Structures
1.
Amino acid sequence: MGYRVNGVRRLIGIGLAGSAMVAAVSLVPALPASAAPLNGQAATGTYLALGDSVAFGYVPPQAVPAPDYLDPSSFVGYPEDVAQALHLKVSNASCPGETTASFFVPGAQSNGCENSPGSSVGYRTEFPLHVQYSGTQLQYALKYLALHRYSTRLVTINIGANDVFLCQETTADACASTAELQAVLKKIQVNLAIIYALIRDVARYHGPLVALTYYSLSYSDPTQVAGTEELNSAIASVTEKFGGKVANGFAAFEGPSEAAGGSPCTAGLLIKLPDGTCNIHPSPQGHLLLAQAIEDVI
């Protein structure tokens, strides 16, 4: 199974209308019961990590050594690196393939979290996540923040790239038109605004909220760079309106990639595959750079 959740080949996606705010608020009473941090290092406070496969630390099956999908502790992403550096106990609720819509709407189309185009099967239906919960990732987040109101020191999120991939996979022109591009960016922004509003106003979390932006898969390809920057700009603008900070994942990979001819693969920032190419997900070295980007803004 492939859970292509990070990197931005170009741009596009699927989201929800603004009226979904009402529906999302109505879901809050159905919060899951289990919300205690189940991984990470106990220390001076708690940290909630949200997002897609980048936050999860996803490793593809072609990697050597092959990952153990039945053991979520074997997947280490930037949240675990941040937790160690800041002496926080992390609860990583991320799900490979999560979209901004499936993040808070039960049954919404994801790109491999609980379902995928044309299939009811997703990562979460087959394998355990870092923390186990019923309902949506946002429901878990709201419950977690309620239970850890006074100990939560940080919330991070990275999400939006799967919206892009999903539309590329389900449209005849792979979301090539300007109209499709603007539509997906708008939907990502609307969905993020709903997510942030519920975290701030329903969970009443007013501590550090950091959105990690996406890196480019090629810093020598102007189209790739422009697409990634457009997605990141959409994410950043909404995050800042809700008092959040933006960790620059794009810049974190830029210097080392440019030193390697514009390739994050050559720079060792992406997972190497046996055929000499790279998967789109960060290597351990890449995760460390993403973690540093978060640490830099807090």
Note: The longest strand covers residues 152-158.
2.
Amino acid sequence: MIEKTTAATGFDDLLAANRDYADSFDLAGFDGIARAGVAIVTCMDSRIDPLGLVGLRPGDAKIFRNPGGRVGSDALEALVLATHLLGVQRILVVPHTRCAMASNSEAELRDRVGAGAGKDASWMTFHAIADQEQALREDLAKVRSHPLIAEGTETAGFIYDVDTGLLRRVD
């Protein structure tokens, strides 16, 4: 079993990078309003640059990430707040190709996590996605029908191709 490292030794590289980042930091005093009026719900996958894939920069959009890029209760909460308090007028829901959540069954995810943890994971729910396009359509319906999403908010769904960088609209 791999021993967990402490903050004193395991984060030095990241803290050094943060000092470099802070040297050119230019968002001081920014009010947190999404300058482009955009919110993006997408997967936590590290192959996704949610701002870059639509030509935006820090400060332009609100980003909500989770496994599979699904719209659950936490994402809906974020979107309600974003459309009323943070200037969001357009919502993109963006899952992606070759997603582990859509490439494994619930049982397979439990087995893989359990094997990696060396513990029983049969009690954990990972929300595997059997049909990614259908799941996206259901998520779009959740957003569009939510009574507290600001009236007039535009919502669209896209599948991001991690091999080409292109978005394919699904509605």
Note: The domain at 9-170 is CATH 3.40.1050.10 (Beta-carbonic Anhydrase; Chain A).
3.
Amino acid sequence: MVIEGDLSVLADLEPEAGKLLDRHLASLKEWHPHTFVPWSRGRDYEADYEWSPEETAFPPEVRSALFVNLLTEDNLPYYFRDIERMFGRDGAWGEWVRRWTAEEARHATVIRDYLSVTRAIDPVALEVGRMAQMGGGKVPEPPTAADGLVYVALQELATRISHRNTGQLMQEHDRVGYDIMRRVAIDENHHFLFYRDMATALLGLDPNGVVQAMERQIIGFAMPGEGIPGFAEHSKAIAGAGIYDLVAHYEQILEPVVLRHWALADLEGLSAEADASRERTLAYIAKSARVARRIKERREAKAAAALVSA
């Protein structure tokens, strides 16, 4: 059930939700998972089959990213539950929720089929992980519609970045895998644009509420993978490979979306409480920029040293 305090604002936003849903549907290119999967590379799994890393050319960090990306998509029933709780099941909001859910399910289908056919990941570990992830049902639970729009905008963009960068690292080993991750990333970008622009619309209606939601969701931001077995270790590998780390988070999310598109620093007429939230958020973003710069400098120095030694 939609939070009582959000009913009025969601009703006010529904015309915009309808417009953005129409834009989303008009911008999509229809595609089907079965046309992307290299079925001819598949073979039966024998009863005593045991997977070996030698079956794939992908390095461990790419396998970590594929593992986390797919198990995150697999947790869709719980995301649907929470998205519907925040935005409702009727009208344009309900239509968006159902459309978004169907598209996300398509992502899980194509990635899982690809991994099963190519044996790029241990299928037993993947299934054990799926059972643990879905059995736990852990998902972010934003407390308000404003929190939900801010969080999901950031999360969808982060997911797009992760899928796209994973695909880039797959490209030299398997063009098919690259094409799949690129296709999924394109969808995730459309999802991001819907949520980003809905948050922008809400910012015009309730700047104080949105700015306070920004503080909660930006400072406390985390990808929805808490229930995945070995999530911390996989996240470290993913960050180490530059697939998704603080550099990407700052340069591709905080700076272009929060600072430029939402123009957090330039908002006027905020309440004292919202203004204090803004200052704390800007201080956090500034700190993130400094840390991201140091990480990037170390990475570039390491790459230069490796080039010289080669």
Note: The chain has one domain: 4-41+55-309.
